[in-house]
């Protein structure tokens, strides 16, 4: 990969990153689009809303489990080929979603779509860091991550609007169309990126080393803390903050914009010191949840807390990815798929913890479990700050991974 870096101009590298951003944007939109048209899907497929909602869980499981498995199976292939293949399979799975009248086939297609997204994510990070110099690795990661955060802030609302105007199937047709554009752009712009390192077996001992698992635990904790509160933020705002109607949408839009800004700017901090960024970010998330818990009844302070939660939370995302790939050393190609899985585990656990809290008490208590988890995340971020990559002489050509271990 180092040769690729040496010959690729800044303009060409930016074009490749823009193509990866587009792919991540459309895949991220497809992941969350179901939420906005859930009731329409349930009515059309003649199932209950909870049954239709299972497609969200199925997608997440497909991404969390299927993504790493597919990444391991394709680890020796050229990353350009993997990106194109993942997009093609993603398009076909979404066509099944559009054309089927069977709930079982719909759910199966959603699980498959999640797995193909997980494969694309792993390959996209590999391509992104291969086309830039090592000192810009964090910024390349942030561009890829931003595709998902911008989809949450912009793509999902637009997709939901399309679903209301065109029907839920029409919104997924739009996903297919944009995915075809992303596939054509990938084939036209993305260079060949041959596999680096050995097969999945030889990389696994590095990708699943304790130092890597420690940072993956931090992934789980950070996103569990955020989603414990975020999953039930609407009832919290209604009952505690006293806002409703259009103002709820304003709060959610502000959160979406903050996540986009955080992920876009977080790459620069990752390049400077990823380990330090994780400490600062986890403290920021903890402070935001503390304000929301203690002073959430004040609308202005609640708004600031929601903004800070999005800004610090997603501002950590590039550094989290950076640290995992760095600490995996020769196992970086396999490790690239693991952060997305850890994030989804954290989201699932956080949603569960928030659900337990709100079921046993009131909406006002839903932030407290997230705050406790966030405090633990600060301790883990601090404990992992001095972890270093393995010393492997044969890996001296690896482009990435002289992380900022001098903190």
UniProtKB/TrEMBL annotation:
The keyword Transmembrane applies. GO terms for molecular function: transmembrane transporter activity. The chain crosses the membrane at residues 56-75, 82-103, 115-133, 140-166, 172-191, 212-234, 246-267, 279-312, 332-354, 366-384. It comes from the Bacteria. It is a multi-pass membrane protein. Gene3D superfamilies: MFS general substrate transporter like domains (1.20.1250.20). GO terms for cellular component: plasma membrane. Residues 16-389 form the Major facilitator superfamily (MFS) profile domain. The keyword Transmembrane applies. It holds the Pfam family MFS_1. Keywords: Cell membrane, Membrane, Transmembrane, Transmembrane helix. It is found in: Cell membrane. InterPro entries: MFS (IPR011701), MFS_dom (IPR020846), MFS_Efflux_Transporters (IPR050189), MFS_trans_sf (IPR036259). PANTHER family: CHLORAMPHENICOL EFFLUX PUMP RV0191, PURINE EFFLUX PUMP PBUE. This is DHA1 family inner membrane transport protein.
């Amino acid at each position: 990969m180092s040769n690729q870096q040496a010959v690729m101009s800044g303009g060409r590298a930016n074009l490749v990153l823009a193509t990866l951003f587009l792919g991540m944007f459309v895949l991220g939109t497809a992941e969350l689009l179901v939420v906005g048209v859930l009731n329409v899907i349930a009515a059309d497929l003649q199932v209950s809303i909870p049954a239709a909602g299972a497609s969200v869980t199925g997608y997440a499981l497909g991404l969390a489990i299927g993504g790493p498995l597919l990444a391991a199976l394709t680890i020796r292939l050229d990353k350009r080929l993997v990106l194109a293949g993942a997009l093609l399979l993603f398009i076909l799975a979404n066509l099944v979603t559009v054309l089927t009248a069977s709930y079982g086939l719909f759910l199966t297609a959603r699980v498959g779509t999640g797995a193909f997204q997980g494969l694309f994510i792993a390959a996209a990070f590999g391509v992104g860091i291969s086309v830039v110099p090592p000192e810009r690795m964090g910024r390349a990661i942030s561009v890829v991550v931003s595709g998902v955060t911008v989809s949450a802030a912009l793509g999902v609302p637009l997709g939901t609007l399309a679903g209301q105007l065109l029907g839920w199937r029409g919104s997924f047709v739009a996903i297919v169309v944009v995915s075809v554009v992303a596939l054509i752009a990938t084939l036209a712009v993305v260079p060949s990126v041959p596999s680096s390192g050995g097969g999945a077996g030889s990389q696994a001992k590095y990708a699943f080393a304790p130092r890597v698992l420690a940072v993956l635990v931090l992934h789980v904790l950070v996103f569990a803390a955020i989603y414990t509160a975020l999953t039930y933020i609407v009832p919290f705002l209604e009952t505690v903050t006293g806002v409703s109607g259009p103002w709820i949408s304003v709060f959610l839009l502000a959160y979406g914009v903050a996540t986009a800004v955080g992920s876009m700017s977080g790459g620069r901090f990752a390049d400077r010191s990823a380990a330090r960024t994780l400490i600062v970010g986890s403290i920021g998330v903890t402070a935001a949840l503390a304000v929301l818990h203690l002073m959430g009844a004040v609308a202005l302070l609640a708004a600031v807390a929601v903004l800070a939660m999005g800004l610090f939370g997603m501002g950590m995302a590039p550094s989290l990815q950076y640290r995992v790939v760095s600490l995996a050393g020769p196992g970086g190609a396999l490790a690239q798929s693991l952060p997305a899985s850890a994030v989804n585990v954290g989201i699932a656990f956080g949603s569960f913890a928030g659900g337990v809290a709100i079921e046993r008490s009131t909406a006002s208590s839903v932030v407290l479990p997230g705050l406790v988890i966030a405090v633990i995340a600060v301790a883990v971020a601090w404990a992992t700050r001095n972890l270093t990559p393995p010393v492997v002489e044969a890996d001296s050509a690896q482009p990435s991974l002289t992380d900022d271990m001098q903190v």
